[in-house]
Amino acid sequence: MKKLVVIGGVAAGGSFAARARRLSEAAEITVIERGPDVSFANCGLPYYIGGEIPQREALAVQTPQSLKGLLNLQVRVRTEAVAIDPAGRRVKVRNLGDGSEEWLAYDALMLAPGAVPVRPPLPGIDGENIFCLRNLQDMDRIKSAAASSASAVVIGAGFIGLEMAEQLHRLGLRVSIVELQEQVLPQLDREMSALMESELKDNGIELILGDGIASFTPKGSATSCQLNSGRKLDADLVVLSIGVRPDTGLAKEAGLELGPRGHIHVDEWQRTSVEGIYAAGDAVETADRLGASPAAVPLGGPANRQGRVAADHIFLGARAKPYPGSLGTAIVRVFNVAAGLTGWTERRLRQAARPHRVTLVNDNHHAGYFPGAKPMALKVLWDPEDGRVLGAQATGFKGIDKRLDVLATAIVGKLTIDDLCHLELSYAPPFGSAKDIVNLAGFAATNARDGLVENVHQLPDDPQVQLIDVRLKPVVQAHPLKGAVNIPFPMLRSSLDKLDRNRPVVTVCTFGKMSYFAARILLQNGFDAKSYSGGIRGSIDPRSPAKLATS
Amino acid sequence: MKKLVVIGGVAAGGSFAARARRLSEAAEITVIERGPDVSFANCGLPYYIGGEIPQREALAVQTPQSLKGLLNLQVRVRTEAVAIDPAGRRVKVRNLGDGSEEWLAYDALMLAPGAVPVRPPLPGIDGENIFCLRNLQDMDRIKSAAASSASAVVIGAGFIGLEMAEQLHRLGLRVSIVELQEQVLPQLDREMSALMESELKDNGIELILGDGIASFTPKGSATSCQLNSGRKLDADLVVLSIGVRPDTGLAKEAGLELGPRGHIHVDEWQRTSVEGIYAAGDAVETADRLGASPAAVPLGGPANRQGRVAADHIFLGARAKPYPGSLGTAIVRVFNVAAGLTGWTERRLRQAARPHRVTLVNDNHHAGYFPGAKPMALKVLWDPEDGRVLGAQATGFKGIDKRLDVLATAIVGKLTIDDLCHLELSYAPPFGSAKDIVNLAGFAATNARDGLVENVHQLPDDPQVQLIDVRLKPVVQAHPLKGAVNIPFPMLRSSLDKLDRNRPVVTVCTFGKMSYFAARILLQNGFDAKSYSGGIRGSIDPRSPAKLATS
Question: pTM for the full model?
Answer without folding.
Answer: 0.97
